[in-house]
Structures are given as structure tokens and as C-alpha cells.
């Protein structure tokens, strides 16, 4: 028996030694692939910190992995640590300089760091191999952002050489030449459009405006005479007169003539929209009512133009009228169901305007047209969530993941909505994990941020962040009731009762029919020792569908 014990011990030691040897002998390539695959899974789940840990471990196994360096760089970039992103991005590039996406990434990092020279260098490397038209558009936007006028002109020339002449190039170059005060070159660009199309009355009008605005009245008059020869009855005469009024600072005259010119189809819709877009850039002439009238004129004369409705919708969103924006987008979709971008915008507008029944109906229609698009299932989940159908919402969130929402451009919206879903269910820890993922993303929506602030205040999780975000979104949300509602709640929790009163009254003035506003107003006035006003608002909340049992208890406690 003693010998049996010795043999057994020997066998166990041998097995242990073999196991240890097997563990030690895992090939580095296998260990690296395992760690890198693990990191990819963690990235898909949004577990960025764990992914960073796995990537660092993988990099220790294989320091020469360009893709591992690149993924670490991207994580640093998404966290706003651009110096670290640059360090790892350069390492990835040095290991594999033929990967054009590394060049593009480094261009973006240097752009964030404000280093125009190096950003240009790497963007140009990226553009040196199979660039698309949109790639050059992005590069042009980058140059314009840094106000590099000469470089932008050179890029437009290169685009023309590659993609062929477009009227848009001349229009953009003309604008840049005007910025350089090179009026002759700007005029030559408009003349080039005219040489390409001698009947392009819009180009004549722009040329005339250029001359008028720079005091070259004789040249302007000559252009106007040529317009009259081409078509004496053409509405471009009104357009020309409008531009003359603009150069003289006559706002009423400008809009009166512009409206008349907009009633004709002889000036293209695109050109009219360009004129409106130009007005947006001129604070002296941008008048909300007048611009709305221009859009309404286009709407009346071109009621089936989805392009008009889309731009009209953007205008209403710009002036913080989401309900009006939604109406125009619905018309845009009615006349053009092939542009999914409109569906994306309309989904969000239904949510912003709290029209959840409308969202449910519209999503059902969209599902028939786009049964394989993950975003449609995301907003199907949002509709069910907002209507209190949480089981259905969970299924739709899962379906959105199955259809690839995690690799779509709107995955950050998924993080927000799934966070809100969990918050409404009381799963606050999970909710804030997803909220944090959304907040750490670069693509933030001011309205969604305001909803995020509500959750921060309601949970008293991070009042400092809540206050900072309210400052951040105020400019875009200042005409929307929900912003003032959330800020009133924030001020109530912080004990700033006077500010809370001001904010809730502003919210009610913008949207009187919401029970939640009057309910919060009652709470605020109670804290202000004004029971009469508190009871008045609570009773108003009851009449608008508020929870009578809870409100009655508040009223009794205040008397």
C-alpha cells in the first residue's frame, strides 16, 4: 500500500508538470489572438475599460501589432485623450504605413490638437489612394474650418481635375475669392458658369449681386441689362432687385422682391434654397418671420418637393419648433420614401415631441419599407418603451442588436435609449453604464442630453455634471419647454427656489398642457411656502391627467 501511495504521488506530480508545461508552451500567436478576440468582444459590448486592458495585454505579447496599437489609439481618441491617441496612432502607422485608415485617423487626431500642418499631411496621404468624392468634401471642410482659403481653393481645383467640372466648384471658389477680397477672380467664376450655360440666370444674379455689393454699379447694371435681354419677363429681375436692396441694406425691399422671384419655377429650387442658406449667414438680414415666409412660398408653389419640405423642417428645428419640423418631415417622407435620412430624423422628432403613438404608427410603416434596418427596430423599441410596453421593448432592443445596431452610425443612440429603458425599469446601475457610454461618445444630441440631465437630477447622482450640461445645452434648447422643466427640477433639488420658480413658469408658458409641469410647479411653490399657488398648480395637474392619489396627498399636506 505504501508503494501504491508513492506511485500515485509520482503520477500526480507528473500530470501537474505536464499541465504546467502545456500552460507555458501556448504559442504567442495563439495567446495574442485570444486576447485580441476578447478585446473585440468587449468593444462590441461597450466595455471599453476591459477592452483596453485586453489590448494592452495583447500588445505585451506582440508589440509589433499595428492593429492593436490602432485600437488602443481609437479608445484614447474616444475618451478625448488626444495625446495618447497620437502616440499609439503613430506607432500603428510606423508599423504599417500602407494602411490608409491609419493616416486618416492621425489626420483626425492632429485636427483635434489644432495642428493644421500635420493634419493636412496625413489627410493628404489618406487621399493619395482611391479617394471618394465625400473624402475630398471632408478634407475641404477641414481646410475651411481652419480658414485656409488658399488651400481650400487648391482642393477645389484638384476635385475638378479628378471629378470633372461642377457649377458648385465655381460657386465655392467665388465665395472664397470674396473672402480674399479678390473680386475679379470671384467674378470670373460666375462668368465661367455663364460660359458653361449662357441661360443660367442664377449665375447672372450672383454676379450682379457681387458687383453691387462691392460698389461696381456700372458692371452690375450691365449684367442686369443682359438678364433683361435674355428674358424680359423673367423673375430674376425681382431677384436682381432684391440683391440690389440687400447691398443697400434695405431689408423690407429685399424680402418683398425675393418672395416674388420665389413664385416662379424659372429659378431652380436648389438655387432658392442656396439663397436662403446664404441669408442664414447674414445676421443683418436673417429675420425668422421673413425666412419662414420664403419657405412657405416655396411650399405653396412646390407642394410635392421633398427637398423643400426637408429644408423647411431643418429651419423649424433651427428655431426650436420641433412640432413644425415634424410636420414638414412627414410631408417630405410622403413625397419621397427612398431617402432613409428623413426616417432617421422623423424618428427622433416623434420622440422629442413626445408623440409616441405617432412614432409607433410611423415605425410600423417604416418596417414594411425597411425590414432589415436595425435603426427601425431601435425606434420600435423606443415607441414601446414610451408607451409602457416594456416586454415588447426588450424584444425590439434585442432585435435591433441582431440586425447590427452595434455597428451602425447610430449605435450611440442605442446606448442612450437602452439606458433610459433601464432607468424607467429602476435598473439605475445598468442605466448609467449605458448613459456613460453615450455621454463619452462625440455625437451628442442636446435634447437627449437634457433627458440625461433629468436622470442625473432625479437620482441625485452627479449634480455638478447636471449643472454643467444644462449650461451646455441651453443655447439649443432655450425655446423648448422640457429644458426649463429639467432646470427647474435641478434648481429645486439644489435649493435654488427663486430660480426654480422662474424656470417652471417659463416651461408652463411654452407648454401649458403638461401635467408634469404643474405637478413640479406645485412642489416648487410648496418649497417657497406658497401653498395657495402650489394647490392651484396641483389641481391643474390633476385636470390634465396627473396621478390624483399622489396629488391629493400633496394637497392635504400643504393645507
Explain what this protein looks like in three dimensions.
This protein is mainly alpha-helical. It contains 32 helices and no strands. It has helices at 2-24, 28-44, 48-61, 66-78, 82-95, 100-112, 116-127, 133-145, 149-163, 167-179, 183-196, 201-213, 217-230, 236-247, 251-262, 269-280, 288-301, 306-318, 322-335, 340-352, 356-369, 374-386, 390-402, 411-425, 428-439, 446-459, 463-477, 481-494, 497-510, 515-527, 531-543, 548-558.
Chart the SSEs and their pairings.
Layout (H helix, E strand, L loop, with lengths): L1 H23 L3 H17 L3 H14 L4 H13 L3 H14 L4 H13 L3 H12 L5 H13 L3 H15 L3 H13 L3 H14 L4 H13 L3 H14 L5 H12 L3 H12 L6 H12 L7 H14 L4 H13 L3 H14 L4 H13 L3 H14 L4 H13 L3 H13 L8 H15 L2 H12 L6 H14 L3 H15 L3 H14 L2 H14 L4 H13 L3 H13 L4 H11 L1
How many alpha or pi helices? 32
* Helical/strand content category: mainly alpha
**Global morphology:** globular
Percentage of β-strand residues: under 5%
Distance between the termini: 90 Å
Radius of gyration: 31 Å
Number of strands: 0
Low-confidence stretches: 1-23
Helix content: over 70%
Average per-residue pLDDT, rounded, comes to 87
Largest sheet: none
Write a compact overview of the structure shown:
With 559 residues, this protein is mainly alpha-helical. It has 32 helices and no strands.
Which features characterize this protein?
559 residues, mainly alpha, 32 helices, disordered N terminus
Amino acid at each position: 500500500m505504501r508503494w501504491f501511495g508513492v506511485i500515485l504521488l509520482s503520477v500526480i506530480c507528473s500530470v501537474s508538470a505536464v499541465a504546467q508545461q502545456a500552460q507555458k508552451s501556448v504559442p504567442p500567436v495563439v495567446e495574442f489572438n485570444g486576447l485580441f478576440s476578447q478585446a473585440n468582444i468587449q468593444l462590441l459590448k461597450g466595455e471599453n475599460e476591459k477592452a483596453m486592458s485586453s489590448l494592452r495585454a495583447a500588445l505585451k505579447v506582440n508589440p509589433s501589432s499595428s492593429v492593436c496599437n490602432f485600437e488602443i489609439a481609437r479608445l484614447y481618441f474616444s475618451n478625448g485623450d488626444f495625446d495618447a491617441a497620437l502616440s499609439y496612432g503613430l506607432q500603428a502607422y510606423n508599423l504599417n504605413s500602407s494602411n490608409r485608415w491609419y493616416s486618416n485617423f492621425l489626420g483626425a487626431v492632429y485636427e483635434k490638437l489644432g495642428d493644421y500642418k500635420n493634419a493636412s499631411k496625413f489627410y493628404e496621404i489618406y487621399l493619395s489612394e482611391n479617394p471618394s468624392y465625400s473624402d475630398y468634401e471632408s478634407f475641404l471642410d477641414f481646410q475651411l474650418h481652419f480658414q485656409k482659403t488658399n488651400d481650400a481653393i487648391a482642393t477645389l481645383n484638384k476635385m475638378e481635375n479628378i471629378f470633372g467640372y461642377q457649377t458648385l466648384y465655381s460657386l465655392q471658389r467665388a465665395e472664397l475669392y470674396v473672402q480674399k477680397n479678390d473680386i475679379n477672380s470671384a467674378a470670373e467664376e460666375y462668368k465661367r458658369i455663364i460660359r458653361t450655360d449662357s441661360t443660367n440666370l442664377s449665375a447672372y444674379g450672383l454676379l450682379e449681386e457681387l458687383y453691387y455689393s462691392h460698389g461696381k454699379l456700372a458692371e452690375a447694371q450691365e449684367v442686369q441689362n443682359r438678364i433683361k435681354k435674355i428674358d424680359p419677363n423673367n423673375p430674376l429681375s425681382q431677384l436682381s432687385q432684391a440683391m440690389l436692396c440687400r447691398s443697400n441694406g434695405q431689408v423690407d425691399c429685399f424680402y418683398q422682391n425675393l418672395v416674388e422671384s420665389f413664385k416662379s419655377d424659372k429659378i431652380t429650387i436648389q438655387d432658392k434654397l442656396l439663397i436662403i442658406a446664404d441669408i442664414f449667414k447674414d445676421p443683418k438680414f436673417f429675420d425668422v418671420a421673413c425666412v419662414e415666409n420664403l419657405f412657405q412660398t416655396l411650399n405653396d408653389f412646390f407642394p410635392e418637393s421633398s427637398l423643400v419640405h426637408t429644408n423647411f423642417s431643418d429651419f423649424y428645428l433651427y428655431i426650436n419648433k420641433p412640432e413644425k419640423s415634424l410636420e414638414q418631415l412627414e410631408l417630405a417622407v410622403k413625397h419621397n420614401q427612398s431617402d432613409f435620412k428623413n426616417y432617421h430624423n422623423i424618428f427622433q422628432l416623434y420622440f422629442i415631441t413626445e408623440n409616441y403613438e405617432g412614432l409607433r404608427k410611423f415605425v410600423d410603416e417604416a418596417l414594411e419599407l425597411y425590414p432589415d434596418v436595425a435603426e427601425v427596430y431601435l425606434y420600435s423599441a423606443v415607441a414601446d418603451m414610451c408607451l409602457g410596453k416594456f416586454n415588447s421593448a426588450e424584444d425590439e432592443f434585442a432585435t435591433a442588436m441582431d440586425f447590427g445596431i452595434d455597428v451602425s452610425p447610430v449605435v450611440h443612440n442605442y446606448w442612450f435609449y437602452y439606458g433610459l429603458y433601464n432607468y424607467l425599469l429602476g435598473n439605475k446601475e445598468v442605466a448609467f453604464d449605458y448613459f456613460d457610454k453615450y455621454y463619452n461618445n462625440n455625437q451628442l444630441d442636446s435634447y437627449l442630453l437634457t433627458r440625461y440631465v433629468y436622470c442625473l437630477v432625479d437620482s441625485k447622482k452627479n449634480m455638478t455634471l447636471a449643472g454643467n450640461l444644462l449650461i451646455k445645452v441651453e443655447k439649443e434648447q432655450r425655446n423648448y419647454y422640457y429644458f426649463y422643466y429639467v432646470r427647474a427640477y435641478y434648481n429645486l433639488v439644489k435649493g435654488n427656489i427663486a430660480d426654480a420658480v422662474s424656470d417652471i413658469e417659463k416651461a408652463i408658458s411654452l407648454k401649458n398642457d403638461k401635467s408634469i409641469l404643474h405637478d413640479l410647479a406645485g412642489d416648487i411653490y410648496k418649497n417657497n411656502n406658497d401653498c395657495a399657488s402650489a394647490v392651484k398648480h396641483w389641481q391643474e395637474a390633476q385636470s390634465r391627467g396627473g396621478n390624483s392619489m399622489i396629488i391629493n396627498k400633496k394637497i392635504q399636506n400643504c393645507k
